[in-house]
Every structure is written in C-alpha cells, then in structure tokens.
Design a protein that fits this description.
2 domains; Aspartate Aminotransferase, domain 1; alpha/beta; Aspartate Aminotransferase, domain 2
Length: 377
C-alpha cells in the first residue's frame, strides 16, 4: 500500500508553522516519540519505578529494532548519548605510538577533527585530505580512518563499502559517523564491515537529545576496553539483590560500554521512531528523500545557484549545498529564516536538507523566496 505522506507529515506539529529544510541541523520529532516518553513517565508514576529492570527488556527490544535498521545483531549495539562519546571510546582504547597516523577528509564534522588533532601531543600524525587524495593518504602507519557517511557541510557521500574493504586489507580501523545518514539513507553494516558506526539520533533519527547508539564490531570488542565502569559492567548485573563485588566479569556484548543507567525517556522515543521507520520501510524513506533532493536541486538551479552535486556524483545525498552568486550564505539563511524558511549556512555554502516529511510545496517556497531575496523584495 502506498505511503500517505501527508499523514506522515501530520505527525510533525512544527511543520504547520514553518518551511523546514534543515534536518541536517535538527530533526523534527514526531508525535509518536513524544507519546512514547509520556507513556514512560506515566508508567514511572504508576509503578514508582519499581519495574525498572523491565525497562532494560524494552531497551533490548529497541536494540533489535536498531539492528534491523542498520543490518546487525542486537548484541552489537550499545546506547551512547552522542557520536563524540563513541569516537572517544574508540580513540582512547587504541594503543597509540609515535608516528601513527589518523586520516579524515577535509570539511569533516568537528568530532572527527578535534580529537584526532589532540593526538598530535602523543606524536600521532593527523591528516585531513581531499577525497581525490584519500587513498594515497592511507599509509602503512595509518591506524584509524574517521569519516562521516554523509558530510555535514557538502553532502559528500563517500563509497563506504569500497573504503572499508580497502582499509580492512591494510588492517586499518574504520570509524564511521552515521549521524547524517542513518534514518534517511539505508545502511547495512554487514556489507560495510566497519570497526564502529556511531549515530546521534537527534538529526535524521528524529529523536530528542540524549539518545544515540553505536555499533561495535565483535572483533573490536575483543580488545576495546570500556571507558565507563558502573554497576552494569558485570555480566550478571540484573541480579540486583546480590550485585557482584570486586573485579567485574564483563559480557562480550556491546552493552559492556554503557556502564550504568540509560536515558530511558529518550531511548523510548528513539524506539518509537525506529519502529515507525521500519514499518514505512527504509528503502521507501530513502527513495522519498532522494527524490525530493533531486527536485530541490532542479528548483535551486532555476534560481541560478551553483550546486556541488553538479560537480561530481558523490554529492548525491539528502543534503544539498549551494554557492550563491554574489550573496553571502549566512546572510541569505538569516533572511530566509525571517520569512519562515529554515536552512543553514556552513563554510560559505547554503545548506538545505530534506527528509521524508518534506514535500514539493516546501521546495517551491524556498525557490520563490530565494528569488524574492535576489530581487530585493
């Protein structure tokens, strides 16, 4: 049965008040996510939180849903609040030596720039390269490559399966930040085989801040030690009547990286969104978003802007970035906001981003207002 996209759009009350083309900054939260949070708090009130162990059973079901979404087992997923927490877990767990190298791409999200740059104090070389120079930048001294599945500034969508295969052949760890794609573009970690995939759910996963998750390759879990130790570090942590004393014996599941309690309200919200996306179908969501992005590019070309996606095919994502002829991108974004249209400016580019809740009317309104701004109206 075809998806009723107007009914989908009705899940997002904020869209009645604005033209929102800015999911790459903040995803809009559907009613069902708020309702999931409300049900959790009502349950806490009713049962005085004394069923808290049952919440973890619910969390495990949400792991299963997330595993279905990205193509992995539930045991491979841990709940970590941000993508930066996941990257920190990996970087802090590597036995760095002077002369080691970390490689990323230019214009990457700051997470993938700041932490590797700090490793210079330990004699680790940090390289930012263009895509054209990427494979040459990976040398025999490279220990880690950190990339985004979609670049937050340009919309660049590197061929991650090809990259991962290249890195595995050389024994290089591959950290993939999926924050700008998971929830809108399909990802299958069984096909990619990365070392780690981190997702902060407040963008394309449409979840309030505080919920995120990480996939950790079972081979990596054999040597990567947790950075947070808590009451759930011992494998038998559910035996709360007689919690283990002394050195914990850790599980080999990814939950070993969680340590303590979880942000359950936000996890329930993320679970509601994930189940909804699985119900609609990740392939259908991707097709919808990319079709809208294609229409958006056509609309922007009609206004005479220069699109990065016209320069090479790798920019074919749901993020559409443009250079405005003779206009400042930040000023244009501010003017559009005053007219009720939400986009962003990043590094001199006007960045627009479309999700499955957008429609053709959003794109037409953006084009019309860009024309008005150019004409001085």
């Amino acid at each position: 049965m075809p998806v009723d996209w107007e009914r989908v759009r009705g899940e997002f009350p904020s869209l009645a008040n604005c033209t929102f083309l800015n999911t790459a900054t903040y995803g809009q939260t559907p009613r069902r996510a708020y309702e999931a949070v409300e049900r959790h708090f009502a349950r806490r009130t009713e049962r005085a939180c004394m069923d808290f162990l049952d919440w973890f059973d619910d969390a495990d079901r949400i792991r299963e849903s997330l595993g279905r979404l990205i193509g992995c087992a539930a045991d491979d997923i841990a709940f970590l609040p941000t993508a930066s927490a996941s990257l920190s877990l990996l970087v802090n767990g590597i036995d760095w030596a002077p002369g080691d190298r970390v490689v990323t791409l230019e214009n990457e999200f700051p997470n993938n720039l700041y932490f590797p740059a700090l490793l210079r104090e330990r004699g680790v070389e940090f390289v930012e390269t263009t895509w054209d120079g990427f494979y040459q930048a990976v040398t025999s001294r490279t220990r880690l490559v950190a990339l985004s599945s979609v670049n937050y500034t340009t919309g660049l969508r590197p061929p991650v399966e090809e990259v991962s295969r290249f890195l595995r052949q050389r024994g290089v760890l591959f950290f993939l930040d999926g924050t700008q794609s998971v929830g809108v573009l399909r990802m299958n970690v069984r096909e990619i085989e990365p070392s780690m995939v981190a997702v902060d759910a407040y963008k394309w996963m449409l979840t309030p801040n505080g919920a995120g998750f990480v996939y950790v390759d079972p081979k990596v879990r054999r040597w990567l030690s947790p950075q947070v130790i808590g009451w759930r570090s011992h494998h038998d942590w559910r035996s709360v009547d007689s919690l283990h004393q002394g050195l914990p014996q850790m599980t080999d599941k990814a939950e070993r990286y969680e340590g303590g309690m979880l942000p359950f309200p936000m996890i329930y919200a993320m679970g509601a969104v994930t189940d909804w996306m699985l119900e609609i179908g990740p392939e259908i969501i991707e097709r919808r978003a990319l079709a809208l992005a294609h229409l958006l590019r056509d609309r922007l070309r009609a206004e005479g802007v220069e699109l990065l996606s016209d320069q090479r095919d790798l920019y074919s994502s749901s993020i559409v970035s443009a250079r405005l002829q003779g206009r400042d991108a930040s000023e244009a974004a501010r003017m559009l906001r005053h007219r009720g249209i939400y986009v962003s400016a990043r590094h001199g580019l006007l960045r627009t981003s479309v999700h499955f809740y957008n429609n053709e009317g959003d794109l037409e309104r953006l084009g019309d207002e860009l024309r008005n701004i150019a004409a001085g109206f």
